[in-house]
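Thread title: Can someone regenerate the structure for this chain?

I was given the following input by a collaborator and told the matching structure tokens would be attached. They weren't. Posting the sequence so someone can regenerate them.
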Amino acid sequence: MALRPPQEAFVREYQIDSNASAAARRAGYSAAGARVRGVELMANPEVREAIEERQAALAEQAQLTAEDVRDGLLKEATTAPEASVRVRAWELLGKHLGFFPRDGATLVDARSQLFVDARELSAQLSLEELRALARAARAGALPLGTRDSG
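Best answer:
Regenerated them for you:
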């Protein structure tokens, strides 16, 4: 089945930075719904297949393999003089190796599990302990919750 023009634009834009939300915005989807639209597009089998085919074609053109990319990132992650470059290389390695969820379903499952874990923890704590945790979290003293940068 052929992709619609907005889907084709998304596939092209996704190649720039592998960021589904940003690709959706650049492909012409509304900024307000770009995050959801990006997840939906990435869950579409035809869109995923088009992205994979385009990535394979680009890799072939560049004569690069996944191992070349991994080796280059590993070198940057361990030898780059700037800490920000090393951190970014580690992040990209993690994505390359599949350590981070890429689809909405996995992210939703992870958030659901976090909610269940929080409920179980709250059942074990007193009201004063829960209030102390909430105060510490509001003050930024605890790394609670997730903050999306996308």
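The CA atoms of residues 77 and 93 lie 9 Å apart.
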